[in-house]
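Q: Predict the bound structure with glutamine.
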Amino acid sequence: MTDDLTRLSASDLAARLSAGEVSSVEATQAHLDRIAAVDGDLHAFLHVNARALDVAADIDRRRAAGEELGPIAGVPLAIKDVLVTTDMPSTSGSKILEGYLSPYDATVVARSRAAGLVPLGKTNMDEFAMGSSTEHSAYGPTRNPWDRERIPGGSGGGSAAAVAAFEAPLALGSDTGGSIRQPAHVTGTVGMKPTYGGVSRYGAIALASSLDQVGPVTRTVLDAGLLHDVIAGHDPHDATSLTDSWPSFADAARDGATGQVLKGLKVGVIRELPDSGFQAGVASSFRDALAAMAAQGAEIVEVSAPHFEYGVAAYYLILPAEASSNLAKFDSVRFGMRVTPHAAATVEEVMAATRDAGFGDEVKRRIILGTYALSAGYYDAYYGSAQKVRTLIQGDFDAAFAQVDVIATPSAPTTAFRFGEKIDDPLQMYLNDVTTIPANLAGVPGISIPSGLAAEDGLPVGIQFLAPAREDARLYRVGAALETLLVEEWGGPLLDRAPALPQAQGPNGGSR
Ligand code: GLN
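A: Predicted complex:
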């Protein structure tokens, strides 16, 4: 048993809270101290919640008064800055929204508060969730706790780094093309993209509405299930929200940890994803994880998904098209910043100057791409074709899931790359999403869990499991089963092997 409350999983911390062994104030203070000590260097947070201790004290009071609280009440939570909050600014990593205060909470935030979670702050991200490295944040990048010269993934690098660096046991992320799963892969954490419609998008600043999905970022599969249980379920404010009633994902994870699920489980591997596209250590960690599952009775089956390779191309037409429309609302009138270029400026001139100053290069690139793809003469050739590819990829999934229970892929082609390596080559950055994008195009759930360290660089690698739409619970079973096997083999969690981080001096050391 550790005395350092920041090293506990959310489920262990919750057990201590409900046993009365620690208070939420103590747990929250421990995480705020950790943030103060390490975040000046890491920059996982854009904003730290000044009222976190008050929220924690309120939970402690309610618990002391005998109130029936939810299973993870009192546990601290980091929130990706794409999710709007009434008590903290929401910028989505963009200058155009600097200081923006929302009049309402995102549904996932409201549900987290109602479950007694303690919002610690807002986490850094690529501007408007466009990117795979967090280098596109208008507020500067986040460092990867495993190697501070490398990217923490993106767009949700802040949430993943916060969890990996023990600044928060739980975080919320959003995944439009991999922004929960790829950061999990490069930081040795767990990231889950739910079935499209399974978690409300209300109050998640829209990137591409037909692809966006909010989900948990944690250190264990069980913790992801616990947070998913809090945020899942129908929301009348989101027109695409499913009305399903979901099983407990935490229970699915607990059930999976027994390993029974692996006996006879059919795990599909995609024929058209050749080893050669992957860094050697990523490919071998993937093969080892499959072998570990096979040794417990899982059957590895080759499946064909011939249209997967067109996923990146289709996505980078559909996403910019939807983004160009979603970002039109940042018009200098209703939200955020306003730049007046000269005293007699027209509305159009103010709008142009504001969008020029407020948006970064990647956002502008995608707005241009998207408006072009949607323009009258090109709509059918680009957007229309991309939508057809999307349907073909959905067909690939349907055919594959007729043969297997889950599909497995490496979560991304490489381990964490160095800052600056891909920033000037957008196509290289986009190709990083090759294994994560198909799930968003098809709306199916996907989870990334740590599978080991790459031999050549000692950096974390993740394995991704995909399941049919609505079968999120299956991913928790399978993920927890493999996690249990691997943690046993490693003799402890992978994150125990991450290097110690430099600590700022003094109680308020690195806080901003
Ligand atoms: N890297 C992808 C992109 O740049 C994923 C973004 C996301 O999931 N928000 O679009």
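A: Residues 380-401 form the longest helix (22 residues).
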